[in-house]
Amino acid sequence: MENDILDSLEDIGYEGDVLQEDVFRQMVELGPQSREYTSLVSWLVQQLCEFCSMEEAVNPITGPDDASNFMMEISGFLREYGCPYQTLNDGPVTQRLDSKDSRLQLLDFLITEVQTVRMLACTNPAALKTTSFTTPMEVAEQYESDTARHLKLMLIALGFPKPPDNITPFQLFSKLEQKVHLLLPIQFGI
To answer: What is the value of pTM for the model shown?
Structure first.
């Protein structure tokens, strides 16, 4: 995952010492205690805010004492932006980036979102910058395929909660099939 993140950072035009593998690894190990990590997160957030007309700011730390302020700012941004990852949104704010995996997940999420909004901006710039804030999820719904829309409507009609991000299509359709088999006898007296 680390190499993918480094490649993606280069792809989106990030420049800096963080692109060196040893600096990147050390930065990820320190997380919110690292000026480099918080500067990178701040830069990614700034990129997103420019495309999505958001005012939320995440400032890099100036010293180790600033880590809690950084955590509050990034948590506020992720909530407003609509981050789907529970590990980045739930639990005590100061502990959300305690693990290396969660720090990498945050970087991966932000980089992916930057790539996404840039692609959307190329195809339909008006979809991103509006007078009222539009979340990436709302923008994605505008471009939702008919198949995806019908699948979502079917899940809602059958009373399914939002499927977890890590569910496979086979698992999802197996659960759908089970639910339909349970409902058929009730609906048709079979």
So the answer is: 0.66
